[in-house]
Amino acid sequence: MDSIAWVQRRLIMHGFDPGIVDGIWGANTRNALIAFQQRSGIPANGRVDNATLHALRAGWLGNPPGPEWPPRIALDYFPWMQIALLKMGLHERRDIIELSKFLVADGRTLGDPSRNLWCGDFVQTCIAIAIPEAPVPVNPYASREWMKFGQAVEPCFGSILVFWRKSVSGGEGHVGFYYSEDSESFHVLGGNQGDSVSISKVHKSRFLSAQLPAIGGPYPRRRITSAADWSKSYDEA
Predict the structure, then answer these.
(1) Burial code of 158-183, b = ≥16 C-beta within 10 A, e = fewer?
(2) Would residue 219 count as lying in a domain?
(3) The Peptidoglycan binding-like domain covers which part of the protein (predicted)?
């Protein structure tokens, strides 16, 4: 990965929008970098100097949205969770422009999220930005294809969870990230849940697999028990 693409990916991880990750130093990237420098309290000169590099390499700036979990130290292990949390609440109709820009930020997309089932697109974008060297499924938009990603693990924070839809033996499914769980459901951070990026409960009876990248890490294997009142999701169409 070239240096400009690296800067673009780090800006996205910190919540700033350089446009598509294309390795081209354009106005969008420079403007995003200046905004990042201003927020970081370093000289806003639009240059990737030593102070800016140090800030870009750092983890989360400020407090992530949502409950106290996950703490920053956990998010440092799972950069794709940082990215997913930053997109919480984006809706496929109300926020169509911002959501579409994010889904194409890694250079590929399924298309209009208001017309497509985009849970796989969301997972693919988060993973591709966070760990671009990790090979994703040939068809990352088909939820069950994520059962072939990386290594199979027991469900744990940050893992990719795959579920069946309509029929366990059929071809339809849903995919998102493990956030926490209770006795009956996994609390899934993902896209196309209530037409938005949200945390929703998915019953454990629908669970097919949990996956973590086969490269990078080591990834802590932690199960988070919570009775958080996330809304129940039955069918993510």
Answers:
(1) bbbbbbbbeeeeeebbbbbbbbbbbe
(2) yes
(3) 3-56
Non-local (6+) Cβ contacts of 191 within 8 A are 87, 113, 118, 119, 121, 122, 123, 176, 197
- The CATH number covering residue 141 comes to 3.90.1720
Residue 99's SS3 state is helix
Cβ contacts of residue 158 below 8 Å, gap of 6+?
A: 74, 77, 78, 80, 81, 177, 178, 212, 219
Quick one: pLDDT at residue 61? Answer: 42
For residue 11, what are the β-bridge partners?
Answer: none
Residue 148's domain comprises 72-232
Structure tokens at 227: 């009775």
pLDDT for res 237: 60
Residues 165-185: tens digit of each pLDDT:
989 988 899 999 999 898 999
Question: So what's the pLDDT on residue 15?
Answer: 79
pLDDT at 69: 53
Residue numbers of the chain with a pLDDT score lower than 50: 1, 60-68
Nearest to 39 by CA among 63, 62, 71: 62
DSSP letter at 206 equals G
Amino acid occupying residue 88:
M
